[in-house]
Amino acid sequence: MSDSDKSKALVDEIKNAPAPEELNASSPVVVPSEPVKAEVKPAKASTAAAPVVDKAAADRIKAEEKAAKKAEREQARKQAKIDKKAKKAAAYQEKVEQCPRDYRPVGTGLFFWSLFLCSIPVLGILFTLIFSVVPVNKNFKHFARAILSWYVIILILLLIFAIIVTFALGQSISDYIWPFEKFFSEMARALGF
Q1: CA dist., res. 129 & res. 54, Å (int)
Q2: What value, to the nearest 5°, has the Cα angle with vertex 157 and ends 152 and 163?
Q3: What whole-number distance in Å separates Cα of residue 75 and Cα of residue 67?
Q4: Tell me, what DSSP letter sits at residue 26?
Q5: Can you tell me the distance from the alpha carbon of 62 to that of 70, in angstroms, rounded to the nearest whole number?
Q6: Which pTM does this prediction carry?
Q7: CA-based angle 32:37:41, to the nearest 5?
């Protein structure tokens, strides 16, 4: 017999026990057929008392049944959560597969690393130009074009600032360009151009 069958049998015996009024001193005491940690007190001749069955054992059995039901509910809830997530992922994947190849979603990693490459000084502009023309995915292409437009805006703001500073200080623009010209000519000479 399994533990659950034993516990059910014990609960049934407790329920079917005779009422105290039905017992007298000569009536036999009901003892479960299998050994159970139950304490049976004999009835006294002077009073008609019912046999006392171990309430702790009955409470323990009820608590075990309650814990088993709770565990089953918890497992069912977890499985329902997993099924819901799987269903949501399948619906998302179906939507992605329905999208044309040019408009499929782009992952965060691709945006992160492309932004890293585009932020490298001097080479970043080259990467940005390549990314804004070459890729097939429109989302990524638009992202690269947005970065390129920021570069253009920053360049225009720098030119406006240079013009304002030139008029305010009375220097010519060639005084600002001369260090860059010298740097690039020395680089070209060092590389053999």
Answers
A1: 84
A2: 125
A3: 12
A4: T
A5: 12
A6: 0.46
A7: 70
Give the Cα separation of 149 and 125 in Å (integer): 11
Model confidence over 171-192: pLDDT tens digits? Answer: 776 777 788 888 889 988 998 8
107-143 burial, b for 16+ CB within 10 Å, e for fewer? eeeeeeebeeebeeeeebeebbeebbeebeeeebbeb
- The one-letter amino acid code at 147 reads I
Burial class (CB in 10 A: 0-12, 13-18, 19+), 33: exposed
**Cα 104 from chain centre:** 23
How far apart CA 87 and CA 99 sit, in angstroms, is 19
pLDDT at 72: 94
Cα separation, 59 vs 70, in Å, equals 16
176 Ramachandran zone, left/alpha/beta (phi>0; psi -120 to 50): alpha
- Tokens representing 93 are 């994947």
Residue 19's contacts (CB-CB under 8 Å, 6 or more residues apart) are: 50
Q: Tokens for 144?
A: 């690269």
Tokens of 19: 């009422």
Residue whose entry in the numeric block shows the structure tokens 């965060």: 108
pLDDT at residue number 47: 47
Instruction: Give me the residue label for tokens 């565990």.
Output: 71
